[in-house]
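User: Quick sanity check before I run a bigger batch. Here is a single chain. Can you write out its predicted 3D structure?
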Amino acid sequence: MTSKSALEDINQTTVYIPYQEEDEQDDHESYALFPDRDLPNGYELRLEVYRTAWLKCLTRIQDLTRALHAPVVDEVSELVNKSYIDVLPGLPYVELPVISVSTNGASSSFLDEITSQLEGHDDDALFGDVNSGHLVTHIFPSDCPNISSVIKTLVTGFITKYTQELGSGKRKPGNSLSTMDLNLLQAWFDALLRVRDLNENEIRLVVVLHDFEQFEPPVIQDLFEICSLAIPRLPLVFVLLLASPPSPSYIHMTYPRRTLSLLQIRTCVFPGSNDVLHEILLKTFFDVDFEPELMIGPVQIDLLVDFFERHSTSLDSLVSILQLAHMKHFEEPLTVFLHNERLGSSDDGNSVLSEPTSFGFLDALFTRVHNTQNTDHHREWSNTSIDGLLSAIRTARKTFRSRVRLLRVAFQAILLIRTFMISEGYKAEATLPELMCGVIRGRIQNVTKYLCTMLRKEQINKLLPELRDFFASLPDKVQGSEKAIISQIDTAFPARDDEAHVIAGLLSEWLLAYFEERIISLEDTPLWDIWYTGSTPFPTDLLNPSIRASILAGLLYPQEFSTSVAANGRSVHNNTEGDGEDEDDTLLHMPDTSILFRRYLESGKMINVYDWFESFSVVLEEQKRHHQRAQSRNLPERNGRPPTPRTPRTPSRHSRGGKGRQQKEQDSDDPPQQQAEEETEEEMENWRLEVQARFIRALHELDYIGFIRHTGRRADHVMRTVFDAPISE
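Assistant: Done. Predicted structure follows.
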C-alpha cells in the first residue's frame, strides 16, 4: 500500500512516509565562520586536521583512563575469585558475597573492563580460553519493580546469555521449572559444569546491579534473603555499582541489620575525582614524554576544574569538554597548518594557494606572518612569495613545539621541588590547576621565587639527587637544550656535603634564572593561535545549554538553525528579488510550528482553537500565493512570449444566474494555460485537508513541548503556559 492510499484509509493508525533524499550536494561554504579569509575547501581540510589531533588526544586519555581503572578492576576480580574460599571460620552459615564499587568519577568503559576481565575476555587470557571465566549477568532498576521480576531477570539473564553451550532445545512449560525458581538456575548450572568439565569452585555466577541506589530496598532485601538460601550450591556473587560516595556507606544506612548479617560486604573505591582530573591533565598536556597536537589554554583548564567541582565528576564529561575545545579551535582558518603545509595536496601547498579563490586566505596569512600595516601592505606583498610564507609557518611551528617542550620540562621541575618542599613540611599556596594556568600564562614568578628561596643547606643532600635523576631521565632531544642547568647541577652535586650553605644559595639563583628563561607566555610565540587555544572563550552553551531559551529561539528564529543560512546571517529564502518584502513577511518563510507559535504569543491566556486555526490558515494561504507567484516568474517562455499573468478570481456568493454565466464566459476567454492553473473543487478540498493536517501536526508539536495545557471546562479552548517570550529581539 502506498503512502497516499494509506493516508486515505481510515483504518490505518500509523503511516510510514519514506524520506526521499534530494540530489543536492551539501554546501560546506555555509559552515565557514570567516568566508572572506578561508580556503574554498577549508572546512574539509580543517575537519581532517581536527580528526587527527583529537584522535591522538583521545587515545592518550583512554590509555590513562585504563591505567586508572586497572587497580580497581584487578581488586574486584580478585575478590570474586576468593569468594567462598577466603571466609572466616566458625560462621553459623555461609555469607552471601557482595562487592560494593563506587563508580563516582569513573568513565563509561569501567564496567566493560570489569565484565571483560571476569568473563576471561582480556588479552592476558591463556590462548583465549573463555571457559575458565566467570558467568556475568546485568540487572537494571527498570527491570525489577517487584521480587518476581528480579528473580526472573536473574535466572533468564544467565540462561539466555550462555544458551549456545547447552543447545537451544525447546522447553515444555508443563514439564519444566518456572523461570522464577532458582532451582531452574541450579539445574542449568550443573549441566553447564558437566559440559565445561569444571569444578563448582572454579566458576562464579556474578550478578551486576546497576545504579544500586535506584532499586527499591524491600525488593533487594527479599532478593538477598532468597539467594542466601541457595548458596553455596549456586556460587552467586553480587557486584553493586554505586554513584554515592563510599562514606557514609549507602548500604549500611539503608538496609537493616537483619539483611546486612547475611552479606559479606567488600568495598572497592575509585580514586578521587580531583586527583583523576589532575592526573589526566598532567599526563596529557604537561608530560615530557607526550606531545599533543593542540595545547589547551587556561580557560579550558579553569572550566574543567569548575565543572568537576560543581556539576559532574565523570571522565566522560572531561572527554566531551576537551572535544568541544578542539572543535572550537578549528573554526579558525589558519589552523589548517597544524600538522604541515600541504593543504591536502601531494605538494607543499603552492598549488592550492596559487588559485584565485585562495586570495583572501593568502592575504590573511600574509598579514599574520608579517604583521604589516596598511601603508606598507602593497610594498611587502611585492617582495613576498608563497614559498616564503610556508617557510615562515614551518619555522613558527618548530619554534612553538620547542618552546612548549622546554616549558613542560621546567614545569615538571617545579612540581618536583614543590613535592619535595611539601614533604619537608612547607605549605603549598597554589593548587595544581593554578600552577598549570600560571605556567602557560608565564605568570608563576611568585611561586618559583618562594620555592627556591626556601631551600636550606640541610635539604640540599636530598633535593640534588632528585633533580639530577630527573634531568638525566629526559629524552635525548631535550637534554641537548638543557645542558646549562644540567652542568650546574653536576657541578654542585660533589660539593653538596662540604659547602652546603654556598651550594644552597647558588642552586636557588640557578633555578630562578632557569625558570625565568623557560617559563614564558605561549602567546608571545609567532602564529601561536594555530597550535594553542589561548584565552579563547569556551562555548559553554554547547556543554550545558539553556533548554528553555534554545526552544524559544528555535521557534522564533528557525532560519538561524538551518544549514542554508549564509555567512552574513541572512537566509537564502529571503533573497528573492522584486518581492518588496519587509520584516512583517517573515512568516511566509517559517515552518508551520513557528507560524502557530507566533500566533500563540499574540493571544491571551485562553486560546480558542478554531480562531487559532483560522489565523494559521490565513498565513498558509498567503504562503501558497507567494510560492505560486515565484513559480510563475520562473516558468519558461512559450512561442517567444512570456507567460500571461494570472488574474485572481474574486469569489461570488451567487454561483448561479447571469453573473455566474457571465463569469463562466469570461473564464472561457482566458488562455489555455490559465485555465489549467485554475483550481478545481477537488484541489481546493485537498488543500483544506492539508491545512488541517498541518495545523494538527504543529499543534501536537507545541503540546509535546509543553506550551499548551488542556482544560476540561471548554473543549474548544486550550491554555497558554508561556507568557514572557519576546517576539522580536
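The longest helix spans residues 42-82.

User: Great, the batch can go ahead then.
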